[in-house]
Amino acid sequence: MSAPRQLTPHGQLIEQAREAARPRLSAREAARRAGISEGRWRQVVTGRQSVGGGQTIEISTKPATVAAMARAVGLDPRPVVEAAGFAYDPAEEVEPSVAEGDTAMEKIMRAPVDEETRALMVRFLQERRARNEEALELDLARMIELALGLHGKTG
Predict the structure, then answer these.
(1) 80, 102, 111, 152: which has the fewest C-beta neighbours closer than 10 Å?
(2) 8 Å CB contact between 77 and 66
(3) Residue 8 Cα distances to 41, 53, 151, angstroms
(4) Whole-structure pTM over 0.70, yes or no?
(5) Annotated region Disordered: where (predicted)?
(6) How far apart, in Å, are the Cα atoms of 61 and each of 8, 33, 134?
(7) By C-alpha distance, which of 86, 6, 83, 79 is closest to 46?
(8) Are 148 and 112 in contact (CB under 8 A)?
(9) How far apart are CA 84 and CA 150, in angstroms?
(10) How far apart are CA 50 and CA 39, in angstroms?
(11) E runs forming strands in the chain
């Protein structure tokens, strides 16, 4: 039997909420909703990354990643971000990196819009994912069209 994994303080809050979710919320689905890979999810909740040979190294994270993970499991991000040792700033909630294969997030990150609009688009996507709503890609395409129209850009 393997030893129980050690979690960071913010990892404990996130994992407790994920495991208590009904219907059941897998780490893979929670990570998808947060816009990160399942491997990155594990790294953030444990604060460690496996480097082979049974060895691990400590990892760092960003407030935006922690906030996205908190939202993915239905938590208010402020106390979770603060448990990770960061000051909470809603303006920093947009994670600049994009999970590989996340076409919706990739479209947002490539859209020729200002950062404020991009932040709104990311929050919209994360909220839709948290509610597991259908027709996300169509909504996203329409949202990008509207954002481009608001900025007077054509494409």
Answers:
(1) 152
(2) yes
(3) 12, 22, 42
(4) no
(5) 1-34
(6) 12, 17, 30
(7) 6
(8) yes
(9) 37
(10) 10
(11) 48-52, 55-58
Contact between residue 71 and residue 130 where contact means Cβ atoms under 8 Å apart? yes
Q: Which residues on adjacent β-strands are paired with residue 58? A: 48
Angle at 63 between CA 60 and CA 68, to 5 degrees: 110
Which amino acid, 128? Answer: R
Distance of CA 150 to the CA centre of its chain: 26
CA distance linking residue 80 with residue 137, whole number of Å: 29
Give the C-alpha separation, 71 to 75, whole Å.
Answer: 5
Domains of the chain with bracketed CATH? 1-93 (1.10.260.40), 101-155 (no CATH)
Q: Are 46 and 6 in contact (CB under 8 A)?
A: yes
Is residue 1 classed as helix, strand or coil in its secondary structure? coil
